[in-house]
Amino acid sequence: MISHKYLLDQISISNNNSGLGAAAAVLRGRLIRTGIYSPFIDKQPQAALGRRRAAALPSSNLPPSKDYHAKPDALELSSLRQAMESNNKPDGPIGSIEEPGVKAEGQLIHAMRREVAELLGRQQTSFPGAQPVSFARQHLDELSRQDYYICEKSDGIRYILYLTEDENQGEAHYLIDRKNDYWFITNKNLHFPRENDVSAFHTATLIDGELVWDNLPNGEKQARFLVFDCLVMDGNKLMDRSLDKRLAYFRERLYTPYKKLFKDFPDELQYQPFIVEMKPFQLGYGIDMMFKQILPNLKHGNDGLIFTCRNTAYKHGTDPHILKWKPPEENTIDLRLKLTFPTVEPDEWERKEGITEPFVDYDSVPKAELFVYKGDGPEKYERFDDLYITEEEWETLKGLNDPLNDRIVECNQDDQRRWRLLRFRDDKKEANHTSTVTSVLESIKDRVSVKDLSDAAGHIRDNWKARAAREAPRPPR
């Protein structure tokens, strides 16, 4: 396995040899000249993969046959170098939102999952993010009963950004994906200053958001991390606060100082791995504004809306107060794909070539079955339905030269109620749970259109304002 320190030494060597440390020197020089030199820039990346201590792990969890500090073999080191050189520059923008850094492995990942669980006060070490439910017709009444905020549902990759420090008290950052993998951001320029000290940085902080590609006018792409919630800030748990309080705390303590830093040093944005922004929220009745003004002007892909209750606490796992609306034609399910290829008898030409036994025909369109996730247990999956694939589509899939069997695929129903492949979801470890599939099927059956939402906006607004009037403090008599 890859030693923690050895891995970081290789990152350091790679950085020094490539000359990519010049960007860090630029910002360091500017900070020195302005008298606000930040020690985070001067840190060598030794052990920058975070404050991971093998000693902190229970001895029973350490593999007895492996040396935790063993050097990586040639294949592991080659894979590491290839990932860093092809995807992400140590001192520049990331090259991939699917693999935004170096993935923690082995005992390191277990230690980190436990550290985040302790930070949240949880026993479970699973992915801590909240998950929405699919929007159904009964949720129109829910939007009238309680205050909800709306934001666009970006077509990106969901991550929780973890701000921590390494064993040398240097700044370190990770992106945690839905597979519960931890991606170390190798770019040393990423910095989140505190309110009154630009050289200080935040630790023990968990920020919920989505990494997207923005399409720029010059044709280039820019990675952007869009924040829509905050779980913990500098060790202070925010989950029990309402959404508006959580967002206000994040804006004041982290986002405003971050924006000011790059207002003072705008040229340094080009050296950031990604740009951080708060996702714009509208009041629950601002539906027409979303469809007419916001969605048409987005720089990145979008596949719906998210309605989040203003008053409820942050909930790990499925949250019935986070509603995911998609256009009826875009309601999708993530399922596991299983392929079964036909066994055929050799034809006359093949018999002349000496092929006399039946063989598996990998060129023909296979039987494609979809499976839904039941949960951890002896039988994790059960059959859901068939996937319809045309011969033309199969030729395209074969041309990818990628493994197809046992992958997670996103599917929707066509007008003949056949399930069709939209894309692969390699960012997901498991297919949708059976409860999620049931929810999506209800949404498909009981579809809510753009017009339905627009027609409900007036009633939602009236009820919102009535609640606000009741809750407003009365003047003293």
UniProtKB/TrEMBL annotation:
Keyword Hydrolase: no
Membrane-crossing segments per the record: none
Catalytic activity of the protein: a 5'-end diphospho-ribonucleoside in mRNA + GTP + H(+) = a 5'-end (5'-triphosphoguanosine)-ribonucleoside in mRNA + diphosphate
Enzyme Commission number(s): 2.7.7.50
Subcellular location as annotated: Nucleus
CC annotations in GO: nucleus
UniProt GO molecular function: ATP binding; GTP binding; mRNA guanylyltransferase activity
GO biological process: 7-methylguanosine mRNA capping
Broad class of where this protein is predominantly found: nucleus
Assigned keywords, A-Z: GTP-binding, mRNA capping, mRNA processing, Nucleotide-binding, Nucleotidyltransferase, Nucleus, Transferase
Known role: Second step of mRNA capping. Transfer of the GMP moiety of GTP to the 5'-end of RNA via an enzyme-GMP covalent reaction intermediate.
Full protein name: mRNA-capping enzyme subunit alpha
Originating organism: Trichoderma harzianum (Hypocrea lixii)
